[in-house]
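Following the same procedure, backbone shapes were mapped to integers, yielding the entry below.
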Amino acid sequence: MTQRFSSPYRTTRRSPRGSASRTRPRDPARRVAYDVLYAVQTRDAYANLLLPVLLRERGITGRDAGLATELTYGTLRLQGSYDAVLDACVDRSLRSVDTEVLPLLRMGAHQLLSMDVPPHAAVSSTVDLARRIVGHHRARFVNAVLRKVTARDLTGWLSVLAPDRKTDPVGHLAITHSHPRWVVQAFAEALGDETSSGLKETERLLTAHNERPRVTLLAKPGRATVTDLVDEGAVAARYSPYGAVLPEGDPGMLRLVRQGRAVVQDEASQLVALALSRVPVSGPDQQWLDMCAGPGGKAALMAGLVGERGGRLLAAEVQPARAGLVARAVHRSLGNSARVIVADSTQPPWRDGIFDRVLVDAPCTGLGALRRRPESRWRRTPENLAELVPLQRALLNRALDAVRPGGVVGYVTCSPHLAETRGVVTDVLAGRDDADLLNAARHLPEVPDVAADRFVQFWPHRHGTDAMFLALLRKR
């Protein structure tokens, strides 16, 4: 689907790359999009964190803010497809193109191939921006490449560049839907999608990753209700009794968000924490633990839930800065029912066997949140799994040590990759004789098509959420 935007032209003095000028820059939307793309490429910045900051600092609102957002996220989502097109249009390998020039080419390609911007306006506005950022000589190179891009539309380019779907369905989907090949393969395996079927469900998932996600809010238990959010213009979420969807606008403008009574949190993130809270336990139910609490969304929900039962949550986070985010998220939770500490949960400061419920929201590749963080698909590699999986196993083992007999552990990842999900759980259980795997979907009866054997797996194309995984285990 194309997006319709105008091509603004304003006159002002040139400002240095990466900084806001004292006067409003010419074409501010494209400039801020470039600065975000450049930061993502060169210093691993996150677009969802940096873009709102730059928009606010530079006073960019309304139509310009919409254009900047579409340019940033649209370019990141379809970067793989655009790179294939650009590689065919440069005289040398795309890898040899200067790091300052590459975001300009990708932005120009996005306007030409996926937005309803006239070709002459897309080329001229990008070249004009290039002159002010990289100089006249390299701007001529940008002009030459983008004029070659105009030779075909996106469908035409992909029909020429993508591998044949019948002989190489994974490679075909990787190019046409802009995902690394290894990621497409991993999704197909997690879905149980057969190559012989043409990977039809995998294609539905990849399509969902390239669509703009909804903003979902959490009404903190004891501090706000979904009705409160609806009164501010939100719509009740599909599944979560604590969730609401904001159809449009900035969530930071909502009174409840400004007051800390509601936060942005994906619906699947709410539901996995809710499922953990629903598992029956015999005996006391007062001491809960969140082992990897940053940035604090699940901790905020769990603090409210345990507070309603007269208990308390201990939220641990190894990084001090993220622990500060957790503290703000649970601030003034129901009955002051949360305590936040900086701690390495693989070497915990607490005693074994003292918690009734333990959540392990393990560090992972983040492949389940590619709708919201599209740049992650280009950062992660299979080698990351070799680093993360041992950590995930260690955390799950420590969680089972921390929970009391009869208590329950929830293992969660924002990734559907089999190595990070059922692979971790199966390996840990194989080395222990004191825990049983529960049927996790039984505790989310309101969500259809979420069961994956005894696990829970959310999917963007099925549930409209991030691809969150949940396993529930009971200590014998």
Remarks:
- The longest strand covers residues 403-413.
- Residues 193 and 201 are 7 Å apart (CA to CA).
- Residues 164-209 form one domain.
